[in-house]
Amino acid sequence: MAFSGAALLAALPLALAQSSSSAAVTPIPSGLPFPDTTYPNATVPYAVAGAQTNQTSPPSYPAPWGEGLGDWADAYQQARAFVSQLTLTEKVNLTTGVGWQGEQCVGNNGAIPRLAFKSMCLQDSPLGVRFGDFATAQPAGVTIAATWDRSLFYLRGLNMGEEHRDKGVDIFLGPVVGPLGRAPAGGRNWEGFSPDPYLSGVAVAETVRGVQDANVIACTKHYILNEQEHFRQGPPPDYLTEALSSNIDDKTMHELYLWPFVDAVRAGTGAMMCSYQQINNSYGCQNSYTMNHLLKNELGFQGFILSDWDAQHSGVASALAGLDQTMPGDESFDSGTAYWGGNLTIAVLNGTIPQWRIDDMAVRIMAAYYYVDRPGHEVDTNFDSWTQDTFGFQHFFASEDYRQVNWHVDVQQNHGQDARNFAAKGTVLLKNTGGLPLTGQEKLTAVFGSDAAENQYGPNGCPDRGCDNGTLAMGWGSGTANFPYLITPLEAIKAEVRSHRGSVESVIDDYAYGQITALSRRVAQPLVGGACIVFANSDAGEGYIVVDYNEGDRNNLTLWHNGDDLINAVAAECNNTIVVMHTVGPVLVNAWYENPNITAIVWAGIPGQESGNAITDILYGKVNPGGKTPFTWGDSRGSYGSDLLYQTNNGVNAPQDNFENGVFIDYRAFDRLGETPVYEFGFGLSYTTFEYSNLQVQSQQAGAYVPTSGQTPPAPTYGSVGDAADFVYPTDFHRVEAYIYPFINSTNLRQSSGDPAYGVNVSYPAGAFDDGAQPYLAAGSNVAPGGNQQLYDLMFTITADVTNTGDVVGDEVPQLYLSLGGPDEPAVVLRGFERLTVQPGETAQFQAQLCRRDLSNWDVVSQNWVITSYPKTIYVGSSSRKLPLQQALDIPAGVAAPAPASSSAAASGSAAVSSSAAASGSAAASSSAAASGSAAASSSAAASSSVAVSGSVAAQSSAGAVTQISDGQIQAPSAAPTTIVTQISDGQIQAAASSSTA
Ligand code: BGC
Ligand code: BGC
Q: Can you tell me the distance from the alpha carbon of 564 to that of 550, in angstroms, rounded to the nearest whole number?
């Protein structure tokens, strides 16, 4: 296919087209040092350090091509039509970011000016428009989760989608369900919803729908097992060669961590962000098992996978493993080099990446664009991530093209009111012996703690909120937004008290014990009376910022700023002490929660800009608290079972984080370990009381579960690849410094790649180039995204009555739990909830529905979901431990697996998880049981990999001839298994363009 010069120029990123009139021609850089040309981990001897520290991830190829399943059909039709018109470099431009700080958003891909197609703007965060001004700073995920209110999940998503749309964002980098919250100290748990996969699944689905109903693409993240900040990207510490590996078994993957991602896929999330760290020793963005097998094949994900920022570690390998877009596009921030960009062009030209793969990347990206109906809703980006000045550089890193970059568009609408409502509804009343609600008639109201007041640097004074000064309304890191204003608790309480003409004083120095004691004492004096309201917090965030020695992850679970001492100092004097906590997750409250002078305890979560108004609504009874804690509060760190890895444990190699507690996190761990929570998952009080009665279970007709069969169509291609000559940099081309382009340096691809290992002959993963029809997985679907559609067959409708037995209107969240039965299952798992508003004396009906998926376990042998023959019981009540109603479920004949299915699973090797875990279960959670648990996890992973993967790999590994490298992406040549694999022949490494090739 021939290209005219006009077509070539047209393929430049938009930005360049605008600046190409500039006279200066940047010389093509020469002599860049070659980056490491080995595959990640290729030299790491996987056999050495003991089985459990070196789990591998089974290979899965080819990368499934999008088919336009279900409600994606129209979007695919449009995407195919669009992509059919594109040149190779135009397709590459869709897949590759322009480089860090190359344009206005945290990520921008290349434009297609020939078709007037703009660069797409990718922007954080999951709670607002990061770096945006005049936009709403919503409560964080953990607080919206605490509302347990589907309509609020949706509305918050819609609000954020609208604001991103109106700022000119195409792709919203949220919501978060990874981390899920395996360990309570995880730095970014608050960005997500809850360690319970069901609650998180509902929340992510509604958020995705809300965002995408505003015609913005949602990017659910971080896929997957990104459960801690330490070592997520390798160094620090500097000697570390690779990032942490989260090691997991197949059953835990399906039943726990993958669960909410399934809901995001079903809700139609247009994009998915692969994570920094490794999964079973294969990086999240080149792990063919998690991307190709689980996400694109089993779940039938029709959108595209984009990398976390610098989470890409290879060119060809990541492409073959299913990555569709790399962000921010450069190999490392502003390296000027790229795994993709021109190198992707080279790889397609020389056949290392088949045309159908690049076409699939482009189609998936465009399908997401059409799926959310972007056309007609696009807004030119009117804000800038890198400066708040009205004028600045379009290309910030390069300091080029000075122009207007901020229009300061106010996109808030009335979303501040919604934010207040979300925060109030997500506030959880943990204890109340009469302290609340306040009447407003208190003679003296005393407020304590820096957490009640302003940050002395202003609400946005610490970059990316990287400090813990003043009231905590947001954690730190990329999951933040600028506050348009932040109502502090102190100012809102003052306004409230003064509206009743009361007296109010405060001490906001957490350590001014003399003043703290004196003020507390005055409140308690006869003839005075009133309330002491103490504020304290616990913060966390993303690992690139360290706050008070906390490297993203929390170092401990106690309150910051000596909160315990502050609370105790007040409670020692004041017999009406009300504690309010702003925390990113559970904290240890042992030091004071039973003190009778503490008459109420409130968890106000991470509330966003309306913090003070929301807490005042609760404290003064304008909103009756109805939030429920979305995580468990324990009395020690150990009671959570799982914890973070703070120290490297594998020499200079990837730290190995074995998820040896399987599905037993949060309340499931407490139940299993026999730990008594201080406040259990799902718990939360109200100013009224509720009674539960009249549980009814109605069985629905669902047929037998039929494994999906049949084959996909063969891989389609759109247009043709063209000739190398068509894609060489045009003469006199102006290159913006460090900007990533799709062009190549010369028609000599070897020279153009600049890669010394170009052409080295290595084995490619079996099947990676297979463009023929592929079998559908039994658990997958040929109909719609989300896996086998019969998993969503309705099986039971459950109802119960909830009566408001108090005298004020209130909200209650009845919860449905299920015991799946069997020796190694959690005591109960959440499977339904609904937030109801009930008038005093009245009864409302709670309704929940159980579908096949809700009742199933993942069977590692059949690689499918199965309803085991173990007896199953449902429970309904007000928390995970207050379950007054229960009933055994009568599973219709022919629906549950016949008894032998589960026993044969238990007997076979690959069910090592369940069999030996069953053993450890009976060993009553001793530490040796825990140890055997981890061994079980690793052996089952090995076993399940041979189940999951077809013959070739299993055969190879049993023959012992081939060393499995990290992820199955590349196999060491079988003739010489110890040979260091260097490079895949092609331009995986950025063209370090030398002047000789110019
Ligand atoms: C974070 C992502 C974020 C991205 C862009 C990464 O470091 O992990 O959550 O979307 O940066 O800011
Ligand atoms: C950026 C974040 C990003 C992080 C990655 C920071 O400089 O602001 O967006 O998540 O780098 O480490």
A: 19
Amino acid at 397: F
pLDDT of residue 753: 86
Query: Which residue is it, tokens 């959570």?
Result: 640
- Answer for the pair 129, 415: CB distance below 8 angstroms, yes or no: no
Q: Which residues contact 825 (CB under 8 A, 6 or more apart)?
A: 819, 857, 870
Tell me the sheet residues that pair with 696.
Answer: 799
Catalytic residue among 250, 308, 859, 986: 308
Q: Is 194 in the pocket of ligand 2 (CB under 6 A)?
A: no
Token pair for residue 25? 């021609």
Give the pLDDT mean for 252-265.
Answer: 97
Range list of H helices, 620-690: 667-673
Main-chain phi, psi angles of 563, to 5 degrees: -55, -35
What are 573-596's pLDDT values in tens digits?
A: 999 999 999 999 999 999 999 999
Predicted TM-score (pTM) of the model is 0.87
Q: Closest-lying ligand to the alpha carbon of 124?
A: 1
Catalytic, 166? Answer: no
Q: Ligand 2 center to residue 544 CA distance, Å? A: 7
| Residues whose CB is less than 8 angstroms from the CB of residue 457 and which lie 6 or more positions away in sequence, other chains included | 467, 469
Per-residue tokens: 849: 């529905």
Q: How far apart are CA 823 and CA 116, in angstroms?
A: 60
User: How far is Cα 319 from Cα 207, in angstroms, rounded to an integer?
Assistant: 29
Tell how strand 121-123 and strand 171-172 pair up.
parallel
b (16+ CB within 10 A) / e for 680-702: bbbbbbbbbbbebeebebeeeeb
Q: Determine the distance from the C-alpha atom of residue 363 to the mean position of all C-alpha atoms in its chain, rounded to a whole number.
A: 24
Q: Is there an atom of ligand 2 within 6 Å of 356 CB?
A: no
pLDDT in tens, 639-658: 999 999 999 999 999 999 99
Q: Are 975 and 292 in contact (CB under 8 A)?
A: no
In Å, what is the CA distance from 411 to each residue of 161, 344, 608, 772? 11, 38, 16, 48
Nearest to 318 by CA among 294, 282, 349: 282
HSE, CB side, 13 Å, CA atoms: give it for residue 491: 14
Find the angle CA(189)-CA(195)-CA(200) to the nearest 5 degrees.
95
Q: Is there a contact between 912 and 860 (Cβ–Cβ < 8 Å)?
A: no
> Which DSSP symbol is given to 166?
H
Structural tokens at position 772: 């023929």
Q: Which of ligand 1's atoms lies nearest the C-alpha of 174?
A: 10
- Tally of CB atoms within 10 A around 837: 13
Query: Hey, CA dihedral for 341, 342, 343, 345, is it positive or negative?
Result: positive
Structure confidence by residue, pLDDT tens digits, 726-738: 999 999 999 999 9
For ligand 1, atom 11, name the residue with the nearest CA.
Answer: 309
pLDDT one-digit tens code per residue, 445-459: 999 999 999 999 999
| Bridge partners for 171 per DSSP | 122, 217
Cβ of 511 below 6 Å from ligand 2: no
C-alpha span between 86 and 65 (Å, rounded): 18
- Provide the phi-psi class of 225: left if phi over 0, else alpha when psi is between -120 and 50, else beta: left
Tell me which residue of 385, 348, 399 sits closest to 93, measured CA to CA: 348
CB 478 near ligand 1, within 6 Å: yes
**For the CA of 464, the nearest atom of ligand 2:** 8
Does the beta carbon of 173 lie inside 6 Å of ligand 2?
no
d(C-alpha 288, C-alpha 279), whole Å: 10
Name which of 544, 26, 104 is nearest 336 in CA terms.
Answer: 26
Q: How far apart are CA 91 and CA 84, in angstroms?
A: 10
Integer Rg of the chain from CA: 28
Q: Can you tell me the distance from the alpha carbon of 473 to that of 488, in angstroms, rounded to the nearest whole number?
A: 9
Residue 743, ligand 2, Cβ within 6 A:
no
- In three-state secondary structure terms, 881 is coil
Contacts of 701 (CB under 8 A, 6+ apart): none
Which atom of ligand 2 has the smallest separation from the CA of 542?
Answer: 10
